[in-house]
Design a protein that fits this description.
Layout (H helix, E strand, L loop, with lengths): L6 H28 L3 E3 L2 E3 L15 E9 L22 H16 L4 E5 L10 H8 L4 E3 L17 H5 L9 H20 L6 E7 L7 H9 L4 E5 L14 H13 L3 E2 L5 E2 L7 H7 L4 H17 L3 E6 L1 H7 L4 H13 L3 E3 L2 H9 L2
Parallel strand pairs: 3-4, 3-10, 3-11, 4-5, 6-7, 7-9
Antiparallel strand pairs: 1-2, 8-9
Helix pairs in contact: 1-7, 2-3, 2-10, 7-9, 9-11
């Protein structure tokens, strides 16, 4: 095989080839695993799912900004790991970032879809969350303790229960999951007078809830017509390494596979788009400009194809790495620049469009 002879150039060339192969493998695996319905220019392609166009009635791209209200390990300091046991103990900086992000997006004519860990509602002051709700931003359910829906045994549910197993003594995994979701719905109603809209699983799964009809039915029974659980596999750099062109291309490809679909149960899936702030800043330890370039690339593809972009971030992470709201402002700027080709929406609006097809 011929290639560059210079050592450093050849190394980058070989890496590019490797990432190109990985891109193809990732796309193939996600396609088979999720069995989603993909529509481009009105032509739906599916493998067993209920078909539905990704385009809105006016062929606009649907751009959603979502923020998960929870604390994140490794932020604000890399050494911070205690948040694993205190996911709902939202600090003042995260609360302030959430409030300002809501204000900025509202001023641009959009709304942020928040997902709240129930333990946040135990804090003394939740007026900031009430303010967000009063601005019209929807608040979804993110479980009470940030539990793992795919856990097979109690010890896999959450770090908190490993330290304090008596909290769930005598319960099954299924019972803990149901109670965690139910309590968050109740807490939002009683503490901030909010009816939660939508459900996001703690952590994203590369196959979503495919093959887990029991979990799909649980969510439907608890009143959720849609879920956001699928986060696609994609290429990633080594820590602190600037992404090559092949990585950006792979992120765009992964975003193309992570489009809304309907499970056979009727539950609608709205996948999260790559790359998340956690993926970029915790796992990749990227610089902010690299993250912004990834957002720009994925959004340009989304707008050009009238598809869906579900920006996934956490105020506890994004607020540390992007204190000036450059990512959120970039998303709003790109939507504004696109004019009639894109609009800021909530995940409820996306789900409604899928349901109509």
């Amino acid at each position: 095989m011929n290639g560059p002879k210079d050592t450093s150039t050849r190394r980058r060339w070989l890496q590019s080839l490797a990432f190109g192969s990985l891109s193809a493998l990732v796309a193939e695996r996600i396609t088979k695993a999720t069995s989603y319905a993909l529509a481009v220019d009105g032509a739906a392609v599916g493998t067993g799912q209920t078909k539905g166009s990704l385009r809105s009635p006016r062929s606009r791209a649907s751009i959603a900004i979502t923020l998960d209200l929870e604390m994140s390990r490794n932020f604000p300091r890399r050494s911070d790991t205690h948040w694993d046991y205190e996911k709902g103990n939202l600090d003042a900086a995260s609360r302030d970032y959430s409030t300002e992000a809501a204000r900025r997006v509202h001023a641009r004519g959009g709304r942020i879809h928040f997902f709240c860990v129930g333990r946040v509602l135990e804090q003394a002051d939740v007026s900031w969350l009430q303010q967000i709700a009063e601005q019209g931003h929807p608040i979804g359910n993110h479980t009470y303790d940030h539990v793992n829906l795919l856990a097979k045994q109690l010890s896999e549910l959450q770090y908190r229960f490993q330290r304090a197993p008596w909290l769930i003594e005598g319960q099954t995994v299924e019972q803990v999951l149901e109670e965690n979701i139910r309590l968050t719905t109740l807490a939002l109603q009683q503490r901030v007078n909010v009816t939660n809209t939508g459900f996001r699983t703690p952590g994203g799964f590369s196959t979503g809830l495919s093959g887990r009809e029991d979990l799909q039915q649980l969510l439907l029974t608890l009143g959720f017509p849609w879920v956001s659980s699928l986060y696609p596999s994609h290429a990633m750099t080594e820590p602190k390494q600037q992404p090559m062109e092949a990585v950006f291309q792979n992120l765009v490809q992964a975003a193309g596979t992570a489009q809304p679909f309907r499970y056979p149960s009727g539950l609608i899936e709205i996948p999260m788009s790559p790359v998340s702030d956690i993926g970029a800043f915790r796992n990749g330890q990227w610089e902010l400009d690299w993250f912004l370039e990834a957002i720009r690339r994925v959004m340009e593809w989304t707008i050009a194809n009238g598809a869906v972009f579900d920006f996934l971030a956490h105020p506890s992470c994004l607020g540390v790495m992007d204190p000036d709201f450059r990512a959120i402002d970039l998303i709003c700027d790109l939507v504004e620049k696109a004019e009639a080709s894109a609009e800021l929406v909530t995940l409820d609006q996306i789900a409604n469009r899928v349901a109509e097809r």
